[in-house]
Input
Amino acid sequence: MQLTLLRSEHKTGGEMYLNCHSSYSLRYGVLSVERLIELAKLHKVECLSLTDINNSTGAWEFGKLCRDAGIKPVIGIEFHHEGRLLYIGIAKNMEGFRELNEFLTTYNLSKKTLPVRPVDFPNAYVIYPWNNQTFRELSENEFIGIRATDVNKLFGKQLLPVKHKLLALHPVTFENKSGRFLHAHLRAIDFNTLLSKLDRDDVAAADECFVSLDELRKTFDGYPFLLKNTELLLNSCSIDFDFEESKNRKTFTGNNYEDKELLRKLAFEGLEYRYGKHNKVAGERILHELSIIDNMGFASYYLITHDIISYTISRGFYHVGRGSGANSIVAYCLKITDVDPVDLDLYFERFLNPKRSSPPDFDIDYSWDERDAVHDYIFKKYGRDHTALLGTMSTFKSNSIIRELGKVYGLPKEEIDELADFPEKVGNRNDLTRKILSLGSLMTNMPNQRSIHAGGVLISEKPLTYYTALDLPPKGLPTVQWDMYAAEDIGFEKFDILSQRGIGHIKESVDIVQQNCGVKVDIHNISLIKEDKKVKEQLKSGDSIGCFYIESPAMRGLLKKLTCDNYLTLVAASSIIRPGVAKSGMMRQYIQRFHQPDQIEYLHPIMKEQLSETFGVMVYQEDVLKICHHYAGLDLADADVLRRAMSGKYRSRKELERIIQRFFENSKELGRPEDITKEVWRQVESFAGYSFSKAHSASFAVESFQSLYLKTYYPKEFMVAVINNFGGFYRTWVYVHEARRAGCTILLPCVNRSETHTTISGSDVYLGFVHVGNLEEKMAKLIPQERKKNGAYSSLEELIERTGITLQQAILLIRVDAFRFTGKSKKQLLWEVYGYLGYKHEKQDVQKLFLPEAKEFRLPELINTTLENTFDEIELLGFPVTQSHFDLLQTRQRGDVMAKDLISHVGEIVRMIGNFVAQKSVKTVKGHMMYFGTFFDVKGDFFDTVHFPDSAKEYPFRGGGCYLMQGKVVEEFGFASLEIIKFYKLPTVKDPRY
Output
């Protein structure tokens, strides 16, 4: 087929830019999509083709911005292998875009090398770079690109047979000479080599920038058919980006009406479970929500989420539904969330409304060890062609940029570290450091690598390759090549399938309670848990170590300051603990107003009207929306954009600046006093970026109550579950200490009693093999597996024969006293193990049919001391079990005041001795460092310390251990702490083994 037959009615003239790269050509292109289009407008280009390297990440953004700029968009993909161009694919239409995406996806997912010649694309063109071997038989859709540097090479060639197959190819990669300089550095970073070692072919040619159309015409003046062919090809392309229609799977049942009826049925079945049979308010709200859900086409989204939840419940998985989805009573009745929106007066429109500018999504948390199974179900149920993980784009950041550029110039590590840590100090040291910092400023926030979003899953109606090519990250699942912002623009509502260890310890705790106590806990019976008197008292006491979100020192202190004994106060606490609230001073204001509501002076009558529930303080994201809307007159859509932008969930800086300007202009027009407006804005600005939605805070509070219920009624089992999930605020030894406080007898690992992880029987807690430092994972699993299969071990020799353990691994178990059942001392066993294994380290392949009778050794009396055992435990487990840290002190002093009596000594100077647990550093207004410490005393009770800059500098923290401290007891809202005057780490007894 001749290109003349491809002529379309659309004539623009001068379309020669069919090979443009954006910064999504990672570590290659330097122009943002936005800048690329600005340059096109500047040069009066009317048709532009984006062909990024091995990806279609920017295609939809490009299409949208081209439409806004009045430029015809053409899209494609430039296919590379090992940094070298193979060919360029140009889509004729959206079907051609799918073909290119599918072709790239096939090779990405299979990890195979791209072929030197692609498959036939019925709806896409293929352009090969010109070389002496290019003149071969070409398919109907295949062409050859002639660059400006190739023009002279055409002289004397017999071109007539291929004349119709030749195009003018002018790639665009950068804006100017300095852009090429930056491009070269990106190539060096990509190849992980010195800038000086780049080959000529590793870097784009110097002419790969926008030039005027007249200049391009002059370049190809001798061969006008090249320009004509190029124009005809681009004119034949027609890309229709649809940003209006939802791209999610449209129905669950296959029929919209059946979706509607099924959702109604499930919602009213859930109504009876959640509220009983005759709750009129809940019933009316369900009808209201169902109407909006149906009108906006979200029934399938609810039903798919319910399907995922139902499957995971059937598997015994525990989940938490959180985020703004908890504003929905239908979600509550479908067990997607456990937050009652009627009880909290959460308005549904925060989640779903016809004017909402962004699609909503449900955030579903699973235990860290169950999410893979959830993903597996979703991909199998909804099909791999229609299901993928959401991508994200990591960008170049300040420190990493400096380190990368430092390597490109071959700087020693010490110099790179200094420049990265103190750029303002050494930035002007010489021309090279100035060059690195200058380049770094250009690279900041430029795309660097594609990665996987924390939890987003997409389920599409059409195959996903209609919208993107897919990647396969290491240990991952198929992943789209753009992020949540692009997904939102295109028309996807993601399903957030997240994982967290807090859920893991709740789920495991419920299982352990059933095993150890014979009690089946209904942890989803939230209404009863929230009203339980003992749980409320536990909450008020701040005794919440191990409990999700409320175990940190700051949160435990806040609970005490608020005398928090109910769900609603905890919901507020879950939001005001966020960094931005504390930084703005609003957390302190909230506590003060909580205790003295009659003395509140509201900043403005609007603040009283909108924030009386939270004492005039912005506590939730919804409060930001209300104030922006009612005080400054912003419409709710703009208010939501403002909130999202401040929390990093909106990309347009121009749009943000426009809304900020409108905030102040509107306030002035409404007659708001300027000084008050500035203070209102200060509060909005400092708060919006860190706040939770009320529903989000409520979801966290539900999980906190579930944790707290288990800690209150089953503290021993609960702490074992926390120990096994390795993800709390504190280190393992703190949770072991807390288990002991709960009444557990902590026992060292034992080859005949312990499992891989920690277990409990009655009150006896056997530490798992996983805690033994340097013990191989396979051995930690094999010892209990072999024991279950063939019975208990009768001796050290038998364990060696049955497991094939090596000498060094056996020594670890002996030193941690895992063979104490033999009645032999550790030193006797260490003597014996050398007799059995000598210096053999590898497992024997030959299995013995019969085990020989254990040999008897006669040894001199070998004595182990308690102190030696304790130091073995510290070395191998990281904490002592036989003795406490206090037992190892050289002094017998234990302090004059205990933690539980601290509140009785307010204003006094006291001496205390505490075991260091945690610290938090804070920079003061003047830029000095101060610290907050957490310790427990000899009786195991926790207390907190404050280290102001002067004392912190003179008496610094010196790592783990026990400290003698002198300080003044201070009190804030009933919460006592020690303001440090002097602070010394106490010496311990010497390790007798050395």
Observations:
- The CA atoms of residues 908 and 968 lie 6 Å apart.
- The chain is about 40% helix and 15% strand.
- The first strand starts at residue 17 and ends at 20.
- The radius of gyration is 34 Å.
